[in-house]
């Protein structure tokens, strides 16, 4: 596993290389995706069914067989063992509790002229959530996408999840039941994104599509952006764990936290940053030890080899600079005084504070969303939240007297912009 | 000008045709834009200068001549006449006042287990605002893009504005001075977007790009989305004016409000919706009258002919349905009781309430932003605001005892997702 130090003369360059990750912009892929979208717009249900039969080897013979009933979701939950039921229910409750605090309300105020200004907040009417199928089909993703939408007040949440060979993950369906998803279609890929964006005879058109997916899904989301809203183009998952070699640190804990990211994906990224050379060496040893006995060791090794790093910094201030440079999706602060660092952290998707807050707790049940900005996009974007499922309309009410001075100002500025009808429209209100 | 009625058997189809507007997806345009972006990433300053010389016929011979000093902005303001100074200053003050109410703050709370959860709010570090040059170079756009960024706490606002043949609009520069823009480069097109997204030797890389532009700018923004944040892909501007033929309505005012949209652009859209056939006829007559004496009559006629409509609805409830179907960028409610309608309006960028609130007041100086979702995207997006220049990071702090039950739940769910390192990382915290 690569080791870097801020003392290296080419540290900046090494860090830039480590972080470089471009989403595939393969022209063939884009063409395929564009073609699928065009076909779905033209042929609707029939092509969605045909592509699902082809790509997912799904045995359905009609589009209606691709929709799951609400009863089947309830049934999936009912047949779970108690341990799973309790865990999923706990996660649901906690995620709902947290997100309820994100709800925004309409506000209005009166200005000194007697005009009323404000912002009306309205939930989106209908949204689609994409849940990957097959190996990486996660019930937790269902909760994290559907719950904020429901808390926002979205009337209809449509979930799509591919079912390769018709096989479904029962935990995913149970999660859809708990999260009160309204309709589920077992479709996936660019065809599912296109169906949600434009609607077909059977699949309703939505206003926004959220949720992760493979490169076809990512390309399709980018292509339909504007027709519908999208959450983000997700890149590989990353964690940055920061420590300072304090007495309470446990190298085996730190190593396992890094591995919990590395086991996700061969392109996942785990970075350890420490001010202490001894701790850096100890964590390297513990990673090797743990890898000897990890089911997904093969994936994790690849991830650590190609995208992982152990980074030595001189002091806390350098540590903070590296964190802000990386703008990590997940940031763990394994220090005695994590609150002291909070002000200096400008870019991170989620901040896990102290030694008893591993990323895994946030992935499942702490409450905050696990859909987070990746690949440095925490510089400008936020965790998925209720705010993604509410939108705002400005409210402007001018009284007859309050309108006059504003109309005068608008008249003057409109004339300077050579917009004569604007100016006259304003002038009517004060002359 | 086309007249529709909800009584027409094909009303739905006619309305769909009226609203259909797809942003250009011309393959040649996309290729040109992709090539420009690739060149700028490779060659930086030199290609930005060369393209500016070529496309804008700008006389500069070095990239540094393309940057304006802060003094030149102050100078542009100082040389304005008093009327313009006062109008711009009033607009600045009101826009700032409104946007200050949108500032979001960091929050945290303690759960019943003694864990702390919350959301840290941080301004973006550096943003770019695109201001069109030439004919449609509007000082109001500078205020509406730069002020929310500054109110959010963005440290550095970089403005780009093309200067065809080196000529600049002094009002635009004066607005940049008032809005406290930090740096201005006189560049435009896809090359300006690429320079802001990736940075060059001279032009700093930003975290988000906002502001309208031509089709090259729109395509470039879509292409760099993910590398940086963007506000939206803006379509043509639209207004929907709603009235019910009440005694206080003035057909000449309503006509001028529609024309103030139509004069913007040949593809701008002005729609009048009324429950009253007599009012519909009267507004049609007033539009014709006003067109006889409007500098931009030619543009407005084209816009009204191809994209405008006068729509007759049976009653208020049908009116609200048409409004929500259109999801207009600007919505004027010319009725005695606009507040009574507010609850039923689900989709609109900005709502102008009552007869004394023409869109023009909102365009310049009411306070709310004039950068609004177009082409029906008010279904899922919001006016530009301070929230576009702040982002959130989740805060999760688990106490030693509060961590244990959550770690247990995470352990169980991680096992069900076959993520062993996740499970072990959680288990360390409770065993």
TrEMBL record, chains A, B:
NAD(+) binds at residues 130, 191, 214. Its EC number is 1.1.1.23. Substrate binds at residues 237, 261, 264, 330, 363, 417, 422. Pathway: Amino-acid biosynthesis; L-histidine biosynthesis; L-histidine from 5-phospho-alpha-D-ribose 1-diphosphate: step 9/9. One of its GO terms (biological process) is L-histidine biosynthetic process. Zn(2+) binds at residues 261, 264, 363, 422. GO terms for cellular component: cytosol. The active site is at 329 (proton acceptor), 330 (proton acceptor). It is an enzyme of class 1 (oxidoreductase). This is Histidinol dehydrogenase. It comes from Psychrobacter fozii. The gene is hisD.
């Amino acid at each position: 596993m690569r080791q870097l130090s801020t003392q290296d003369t080419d540290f900046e360059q090494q860090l830039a290389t480590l972080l470089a990750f471009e989403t595939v912009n393969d022209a063939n892929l884009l063409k395929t995706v564009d073609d699928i979208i065009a076909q779905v717009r033209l042929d609707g249900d029939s092509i969605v069914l045909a592509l699902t039969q082809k790509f997912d080897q799904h045995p359905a013979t009609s589009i209606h067989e691709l929709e799951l009933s609400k009863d089947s979701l309830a049934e999936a939950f009912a047949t779970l063992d108690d341990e799973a039921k309790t865990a999923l229910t706990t996660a649901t409750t906690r995620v709902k509790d947290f997100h309820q605090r994100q709800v925004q309300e309409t506000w209005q105020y009166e200005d000194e002229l007697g005009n009323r200004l404000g912002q009306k907040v309205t939930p989106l009417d209908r949204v689609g959530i994409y849940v990957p199928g097959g190996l990486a089909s996660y019930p937790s993703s269902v909760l994290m996408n559907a719950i904020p939408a429901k808390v926002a007040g979205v009337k209809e949440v449509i979930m799509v999840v591919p079912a390769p060979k018709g096989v479904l993950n029962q935990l995913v369906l149970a999660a859809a039941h708990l999260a009160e998803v309204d309709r589920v279609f077992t479709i996936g890929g660019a065809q599912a994104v296109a169906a949600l964006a434009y609607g077909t005879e059977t699949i309703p058109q939505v206003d926004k599509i959220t949720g992760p997916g493979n490169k076809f899904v990512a390309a399709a989301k980018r292509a339909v952006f504007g027709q519908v809203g999208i959450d983000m183009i997700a890149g590989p998952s990353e964690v940055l764990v920061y420590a300072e070699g304090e007495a309470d640190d446990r190298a085996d804990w730190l190593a396992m936290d890094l591995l919990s990211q590395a086991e996700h994906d061969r392109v996942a990224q785990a970075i350890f940053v420490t001010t202490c050379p001894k701790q850096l060496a100890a964590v390297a040893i513990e990673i090797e030890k743990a890898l000897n006995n990890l089911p997904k060791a093969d994936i994790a090794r690849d991830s650590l080899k190609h995208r992982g790093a152990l980074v030595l910094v001189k002091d806390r201030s350098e540590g903070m600079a590296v964190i802000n440079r990386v703008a990590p999706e997940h940031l763990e602060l394994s220090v005695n005084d994590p609150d002291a660092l909070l002000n200096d952290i400008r870019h991170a998707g989620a901040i896990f504070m102290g030694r008893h807050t591993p990323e895994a707790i946030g992935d499942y049940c702490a409450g905050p969303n696990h859909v987070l900005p990746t690949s440095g996009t925490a510089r400008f974007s936020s965790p998925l939240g209720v705010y993604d499922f509410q939108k705002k309309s400005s409210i402007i009410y001018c009284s007859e007297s309050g309108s006059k001075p504003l109309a005068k100002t608008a008249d003057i500025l409109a004339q300077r912009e050579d917009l004569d009808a604007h100016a006259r429209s304003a002038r009517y209100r004060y002359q």
